Amino acid sequence: MRKGRKYAAESMGIFALVFAGTGAIIINDVTGGAVTNMGVGLTFGMIVMTMIYAVGDVSERILILQ
Length: 66
Description:
single chain, mainly alpha, 0% strand
């Protein structure tokens, strides 16, 4: 059962990373650069930080980063 929780935590983290990060890139493109590269980078960083706090205790591996 513990292994299933780890897989679910990793899946949730990867989904959030891809969804929010790709969304920031697309919004940046659609708005003509209103988000900027710094905003896209901050989006990815904030998602990684949020997922570490949210599921870090369940999954010892943090979003496949080792």
